[in-house]
Amino acid sequence: MFTATVFAEPIDEFVRLLTKFSNTPKLQTQFTQQTNNTQSEIQRGVFYFVSPDQFKWEYTYPYEMSIFSYDNALYIYDKVLGHLTIKNINEENLGPTSILTQKSVSQKKLQSLFSKITYHKDNQGHAQFTLIPASSETLFESLLVTFNLNEFPKQIAWKDSIGGEHAINFISIVTNKMLPKDLFLPPHTKNLELYDMR
What we know:
Layout: H1 10-22, E1 26-36, E2 40-50, E3 54-61, E4 65-70, E5 73-78, E6 83-88, H2 91-94, H3 98-101, H4 107-113, E7 114-121, E8 127-133, E9 140-147, E10 153-160, E11 165-175, E12 193-196
Parallel strand pairs: 6-12
Antiparallel strand pairs: 1-2, 1-11, 2-3, 3-4, 4-5, 5-6, 7-8, 8-9, 9-10, 10-11
């Protein structure tokens, strides 16, 4: 449910909140990811972020997998299959979550990516931004980003190009907690199959 309040320059507020997030020295939070397509699926894990653009999505349920940045590349590690895939870091490979993990964000960049950005507050006072991609080739039709009352991300939800609905909910955000030194290092496991797609 939305209030009737609509702000004249939503892009300014969106840039402010994204900048606050990217300037947070260290952050970690549990998350759930729900996908509703031909069937419903729920995944769980922990998200880590170190300013300005280092991140890791560590999935723990229903299978173990991690997606993280290292040495200007994107690493995808499937622990069950023993596969490590390396790709270039870009909006296409990161998908909708790239909105949170960009090194810098500006009005100009957002305007090049999205044709329309609207801003509302829900009945609990959470800031909600709806973004419509500028390109028809983008893998999602719309993106909804919600911030909690402490101005940190609460949810990212999107609808993909084939009608599937996805949502990532962030739970129990902790900032500036000491993180393991090897958190963002690639795994060193015997019999690891490497796929370098850069």
